[in-house]
Amino acid sequence: MVSYLAVVVVTRNAQITIPKKIREALGIAEGDRVTLRIEGNRVVVEKVTEDVWSDCTDFLPENFEKVLEKLRKDSRERFKRLGLTP
Question: What pLDDT score was predicted for residue 34?
Answer without folding.
Answer: 92
